[in-house]
């Protein structure tokens, strides 16, 4: 069967799930050299700071993306399920939720909270990638938006590597500052189980199935390119104008 014929074939739910998981096996950013450098203890403290600073842009955009998806859900059952994601990230009170836990990490690394939240020191490629993801979820079909979230199928592995590797190799992080990563795996497992079931139920035509596969591929690209940018800027030293500079005091507490 050639590629054209494969794209026209309707996959069984089992085949579709296998195809989605294969994208993660080949394209998820746990394979990126920066990820391996970070978790293997090879990053400098400033490289870890740059990663946490830039990753905040993505973390802060997740509830915005999810709110966009929520507005397009036609039933109360779907909206109740999806709005839990927003609460997980925003919290139900100040100081609660995933974004607040991420700010504990950046503060623990010595970054100024206001500077992090302003995102003015983030890399241009980071901002472009995050904005592209939010726009994708606003402009594509509801099915594609949900399918793009399926990177959460693979996140427990990378979170486990991140938590154990960073605690083992860096004396400037602690279990408290890494609290985001201890809280997130059960949430990601619940979120991905719902999203996968939704995709398998609603992607019944070849066209819809290919759209879901493309959506997940796009999302892996969004995550990958952020690490490309970090590597280029902070490992190879090609800092673009306006990006946080480790040799200056701006952004540090």
UniProtKB/TrEMBL annotation:
Residues 18-228 form the Thiaminase-2/PQQC domain. One of its GO terms (molecular function) is pyrroloquinoline-quinone synthase activity. It comes from the Bacteria. One of its GO terms (biological process) is pyrroloquinoline quinone biosynthetic process. Keywords: Oxidoreductase, PQQ biosynthesis. Its EC number is 1.3.3.11. Pathway: Cofactor biosynthesis; pyrroloquinoline quinone biosynthesis. It catalyses: 6-(2-amino-2-carboxyethyl)-7,8-dioxo-1,2,3,4,7,8-hexahydroquinoline-2,4-dicarboxylate + 3 O2 = pyrroloquinoline quinone + 2 H2O2 + 2 H2O + H(+). It is an enzyme of class 1 (oxidoreductase). Transmembrane segments: none annotated. SUPFAM superfamilies: Heme oxygenase-like. Pfam families: TENA_THI-4. HAMAP family: PQQ_syn_PqqC. Ring cyclization and eight-electron oxidation of 3a-(2-amino-2-carboxyethyl)-4,5-dioxo-4,5,6,7,8,9-hexahydroquinoline-7,9-dicarboxylic-acid to PQQ. PANTHER family: 4-AMINOBENZOATE SYNTHASE, PQQC-LIKE PROTEIN. Belongs to the PqqC family. This is Pyrroloquinoline-quinone synthase. The gene is pqqC.
